[in-house]
Amino acid sequence: LIGSRTTQLRYLDLEECKRRNIKVVNIKADSPVLKKTFSTAEEAIALIFALMRRIPWAFNSIKEGKWERKKYGGNELFGKTIGLIGLGRLGKIVARYSHCFGMKVIAYDPYVGFNAMKKSKVEKTDLQDLLKKSDIVSLHCIYNDSTFGMLKKEHFNSMKKTAVFINTARGEITDEKQLLKALKDRRIAGAALDTLADEDPSGKHLKNNPLVAYAKKNENLIIVPHLGGATSEATERTQIYISELVAKQIKSWEKQ
């Protein structure tokens, strides 16, 4: 028996588990525990604020003994358009938060209909239209074979030069080389990434990573170590939940 405190299982060889008769239990997308977990959506908003108000670099400036109000004043969220790629559980939460800050919310999601989006006060649109109109593009779709490398050069080139890109989903959904090029060429104003492609728990994927190297010297890219669901509350809640699922499975076997 393997118990996984995750919704996706791409890191497990499920065919081998099946061959060895190993049962896998994990947190399903419609699980009640996720309905109480807002951590990743909150982080997306935090990254938006950090980019738009240039918080990390303003703090670095203070640590260097500088007082640069004009340089790091940033921009307001009020009146901006945020485009959500994916309007599932997290996308809907981010949409609610965005409305609170006076933003217009548009979304691209082929699996969510016009009426469902309208109930969430979200305007349904296609991907190209979203990229062209949005001041903030935030990624909230599931990582699978159909979304692998979904955002390519032409997509970043379609964005406003003043727009920022937020990824709290998976690094593999974007073509990271093209994202880096868009940042270097100032095709977009900035990006904040909670996740990178080919992540390793030890952090060895950071070595010689071009995005990490760029972030060290430039003030338009933020990278954090996959903190979306890492809050103490979310961790405890999901640990308890998966432990209960494992215990329930063991009890069912004992009764057989």
In short:
With 256 residues, this protein is of the alpha/beta class. Helices cover 39% and strands 13% of the residues.
Task: Describe the fold and architecture.
The protein is an alpha/beta fold and 256 residues long. The chain is 39% helix and 13% strand. It has ten helices and nine strands. A seven-stranded parallel beta sheet has the order 5-4-3-6-7-8-9, sandwiched between helices. Helix 8 links the parallel strand 7 and strand 8 (190-193). The chain is globular. The chain starts with a strand and ends with a helix.
Evaluate the radius of gyration. 20 Å
Low-confidence stretches: none
Q: From N to C, what is the helix and strand string?
A: EHEHHEHEHEHEHEHEHEH
Give a quick account of the main beta sheet: strands, pairing sense, barrel closure. 7 strands, parallel
Distance between the first and last residues' Cα: 16 Å
Q: Overall pLDDT, averaged? A: 96
- β-strand number: 9
| Proportion in β-strands | 5-15%
Helix content: 25-40%
The coarse overall form would be globular
Helix/sheet category: alpha/beta
- Main sheet strand line-up: 5-4-3-6-7-8-9
Instruction: Count up the helices.
Output: 10
